[in-house]
Amino acid sequence: MASHRKSRPAGTRVAGIRTPALATAALTSVALLSQTANASPSTDDRPSLEEVEKKVDDLYRQAESATENYNAAKEKTAKQRKRVDTLLDDVAKRTQELNEAREELGTFAAAQYRTGAAAPDTATFLLADTPQDYFDQTQLMDRLTGRQKEAVDDYFTQQSATMKKRQEATQSLETLTESQNDLQTAKSTVQTKLSDARELLSKLTAEEKARLAAIEKRKQEEAARKAAELARQQAEAEAERQRQEAAAQQQQESSESASDSSSSESSDSSASDSSYATKAEKALAFSRSQIGKPYVWGATGPDSYDCSGLTQAAWKAAGVDIPRVTYDQVNAGTTVSLANAQPGDLIFFYDDVTHVGIYIGNGMMIHAPKPGTYVREESIYYDGESSIHSVVRPA
Q1: pLDDT at position 284
Q2: Which of 74, 103, 111, 238 is most buried, judged by most C-beta within 10 A?
Q3: DSSP track, 169-205
């Protein structure tokens, strides 16, 4: 017998209660949304430790580049301010002399007026800034004595020179303003990059910081290994050079004339090498005495340094003036190969030449690395072999 009971709608039980299919779908959606909301979004979106490390390194690099721009703008601003001050002093002096010349012309004009030799308005016009047109129109010059004509000529000469200096001062002031704007822009860029780097590092957990330190340690160990390898190669090259020199000396001794001539050339070369070594020793002694002092961008000592500030101060201690910024320091000397690098040479880094250290031999250097660090002795491969740009001998 057929049942008259209505069929139950399809559904499921939730907590012992039968629910229709539509309600089930709604509950399922709510559950999924709840799971999504409770899931930690930072797990997928958070950058890896390697990405953080690269980003921080890039920010420090960009900050160092901005620091060199700041240094260049600061130096330009200082020079421009000095020029403006000189021009303004010159203009003030010339203006005083011009006023004295104008008074002398006024005396001449007044004298001519009293004797009836000139029109009554002559004195007034001579006291004006540009009496030349008046002279041309009235032929007053014909009535002036030789001394008076000389005074008039001198007045016009001084007036022209003073106007020119005033224009130069105005242009220099405009250039100074531009330099000051560049200085402020570079300063803001440095501060922004360093702030971004510190913010990234502050978000690392203690475990991540420990892992980052371990990565840095492995990099330092690899850099030290490469430095030792370079030291070995340089030692072998030096031994070979000495062997060849000894062989050449023996060959030269077989001929007295050849010996005399070559002896003179060898003496000149030795004197040159000795002179550089003496200066380099002083530069290195200064650099070593700065180890432990903090890196501060834009600093030139004596309490803190940035990279180019340290190298400039080191060579200044040796009696050699080199430019302030890396972009100029790289051109302030003779470029040599890394294999022929000698203590005292400057080692430049990166394609944009934004970092520099002073070579001490055996693949090592002294440099001011970056914000948060101190002047230290380190492998020239501290940031990988490809980061080395060039080697320059500054004296």
Answers
A1: 98
A2: 74
A3: HHHHHHHHHHHHHHHHHHHHHHHHHHHHHHHHHHT--
The amino acid sitting at 385 is E
Task: Specify the pairing of strand 355-361 against strand 346-349.
Answer: antiparallel
Sheet containing 334-336: which strands, arranged edge to edge? 334-336, 388-393, 346-349, 355-361, 364-367, 376-379
Residue bearing the bigger pLDDT, 140 or 337: 337
Q: Tell me the C-alpha to C-alpha distance, in Å, between residue 340 and each of 63, 245, 312, 392, 395.
A: 31, 16, 22, 11, 15
My answer on whether omega of the bond before 302 falls inside 30° of 0, hence cis, is: yes
- Residue pair 144/108 in contact (Cβ under 8 Å)? The answer is yes
Q: Minimum mean pLDDT among 128-132, 267-271, 289-293, 344-348: which range?
A: 128-132
In order of start, what are the domains of the chain with their CATH numbers?
49-202 (1.10.287), 273-393 (3.90.1720.10)
Closest by CA to 121, choosing from 136, 110, 108, is 110
Q: Determine the length of the chain.
A: 395
**Residues noted as catalytic:** 307, 355, 367
pLDDT digits (tens, 9 = 90+) for 70-116: 998 888 888 888 887 887 887 788 787 777 777 766 676 666 556 55
Residue at token pair 């399922």: 28
219: Cα within 13 Å, side-chain hemisphere: 14
Do 145 and 81 contact (CB within 8 A), yes or no? no
Give the DSSP H/E element, type plus range, for residue 359.
Answer: strand 355-361
Contact 169, 91 (CB under 8 A): yes
Residue 265 is inside which H or E element, if any?
helix 256-289
CA gap 336, 163 in Å, rounded: 51
Structure tokens at 120: 């009554």
pLDDT at 97: 73
Residues 245-253 have a mean pLDDT of 82
Can you tell me which residue has the tokens 């072999």? Answer: 385
Backbone torsions φ then ψ of 81, nearest 5 degrees: -65, -40
Q: Find out whether 211 and 49 touch, Cβ atoms under 8 Å.
A: yes
- CA atoms of 381 and 219, how far apart (whole Å): 9
Whether residue 392 is predicted with pLDDT greater than 80 in this model: the reply is: yes
The single-letter code of the amino acid at 294 is P
Q: What are phi and psi of 349, to 5 degrees?
A: -130, 150
Higher pLDDT residue, 181 or 270?
181
Letter for the amino acid at 66? A
Which residue type occupies 264? S
Tokens 């540009």, residue located: 130
- Mean pLDDT within 18-31: 40
